[in-house]
Amino acid sequence: MDPELEAFIPLFPPADLTDPATERKNFAALAAGLPPPDTSAMEVEDRTVSADPDVPVRIYRPHRARGAVVWLHGGGFVMGDLDTEHPWAARLADASGAVVVSVGYRLAPEHPFPAALDDACAVLAWTAGHAAELGVDPERIAVGGHSAGGGLAAAVALRARDEQGPAICFQLLNQPGLDDRQETWSRRNFTDTPWMNRDKAAAAWRHYLGSAPATPYAAPARAADLSGLPPAYIATAEFCPNRDEDIAYALRLLQAGVSVELHQWPGTFHGSQAILSADVSQRQIAELGAALRRALAG
């Protein structure tokens, strides 16, 4: 473990999702304790995307942006909202120079699959349809997210490909949750890792899937065909249950002819980039922004 990160482990709440209401409060408290982002170089606006039901979004619009990313927050499908994601969405907009459309998708278990995916797809369609208003090139729209949001972003890319939806130029997947199965080495063996462990990951998937079968749109690792998907940047954390499924997904994308940049961050754990004082966290956040900037400029 990176020593700068290890010192903060006692401050993280136990990795548990048995009581979603309590965990949402803990998650919100963690986010509220972060240093506020600098939004002086961008416009920040709350909007509502018309859908069934409507979807709240928060738009971060840096000056002279050329592209946009539909950004999906983490939280195990159960936690998170526009406010908890504010520190990260603002930093991503600042680091990348892209318009970030942060999505307040519906949460499980009250709203199991496919509610969150439907919300994300509705916002992608809205973003593509409002590209001129947002001041971006409709050919430069990406999807991305962290943890559960990364899995949702991968699912959006799959569904957009299959249903001839809006064109997506890039996937930015940070420690994504892609597989509901407990089959990889990291998923089976990381039983006591900070913030996310085997049991918490399993609980997140139970909440998200409910009684529905796991399809590729719920768990993208189940997709048999990954050809024709947008280029991807995939980042993994060394001590994260999702690590091996993310690396396997990156390899499968490559084998399907999809260009991939894969970055495995040593000494890190799931969500440890929230420890902003650590050098490795600063490099992770900067690299996410740089990867998105490169993709939207290409």
Task: Please tell me about this protein's structure.
The chain is an alpha/beta fold and 298 residues long. The protein has a single domain (3-297), classed as Alpha/Beta hydrolase fold, catalytic domain (Rossmann fold, 3-Layer(aba) Sandwich), CATH 3.40.50. It is 39% helix and 18% strand. The chain is built from ten helices and eight strands. The protein has helices at residues 3-6, 20-32, 82-96, 115-129, 131-134, 148-162, 185-189, 198-209, 243-255, 279-297; strands at 42-49, 55-62, 68-72, 99-103, 141-146, 170-174, 232-239, 260-269. Helix 3 crosses helix 10 and helix 4 (115-129) packs across helix 6 (148-162). It is globular and about 45 Å long. The model has no long low-confidence stretch (mean pLDDT 96). Residues 69-272 form the Alpha/beta hydrolase fold-3 domain. Keywords: Hydrolase. This is Alpha/beta hydrolase. One of its GO terms (molecular function) is hydrolase activity.
| Count of structural domains | 1
CATH superfamily: Alpha/Beta hydrolase fold, catalytic domain
CATH architecture: 3-Layer(aba) Sandwich
For the secondary structure, the number of strands is 8
Shape: globular
N-to-C terminal Cα separation, in Å? 35 Å
Q: Per CATH, what is the topology?
A: Rossmann fold
Query: What is the SS-derived class?
Result: alpha/beta
How many H/I helices?
Answer: 10
Task: Tell me the major beta sheet.
Answer: 8 strands, mixed
- Spans of at least 5 consecutive residues with low confidence: none
The whole-angstrom Rg is 17 Å
* Secondary-structure element order, N to C: HHEEEHEHHEHEHHEHEH
Helicity range: 25-40%
